[in-house]
Specification:
Alpha-D-Glucose-1,6-Bisphosphate, Chain A, domain 4, globular, about 150 residues, alpha+beta, about 40% strand, seven-stranded antiparallel sheet, about 25% helix
């Protein structure tokens, strides 16, 4: 099992940040273009709720499109939500999004816990490129969120 923890201070109020982050349609705005991220489920305009299933198409590696289905398993408005992969490229994916109000803005913490696919081969792939790719995606996301909220 692998875990990546990312933190970012967003200089905005919790209402505006939560409104942006809790809308599935905004995921494409904070995902690198090379991923060819596309939500195919019809509920992308809804505000997320526990039990919400979202289906995407992504192209993470070698321009091979993949189906990725996640479920929003927990939501505590303006505090946290959790998404878990139901179908997709990982053996297991669990992503906690946590929001804390601080004096200088909102601390946004992501805890990504995953198991790469393909056993020992997946562990090697994780060491060689998967973990770096996940971090690059979150680097991009942090950059875009800074551009949206911290200007």
């Amino acid at each position: 099992m692998e875990q990546i923890i990312r933190e970012q201070i967003v200089k905005t109020n919790i209402d505006d940040l939560w409104s942006f982050i809790s809308s599935p349609k905004n995921l494409g705005k904070i995902t690198p273009n090379y991923m060819q991220f596309n939500i195919v489920s019809k509920n992308k305009d809804e505000v997320m709720y526990p039990g919400m299933i979202i289906e995407y198409r992504v192209t993470p590696l070698l321009k091979i499109p993949l189906k990725w289905i996640t479920e929003i398993t927990h939501v505590k408005e303006k505090e946290f939500f959790v998404d878990e992969q139901r179908v997709g490229p990982y053996k297991m994916w669990h992503h906690e999004h946590i929001f804390e109000i601080k004096e200088n803005g909102i601390l946004m913490r992501d805890i990504i816990t995953y198991i790469p696919p393909f056993g020992l081969l997946g562990k090697l792939a994780n060491y060689l490129f998967i973990k770096n790719k996940v971090n690059q995606i979150f680097d991009y996301r942090n950059k875009i969120i800074n551009e949206i909220f911290n200007n």
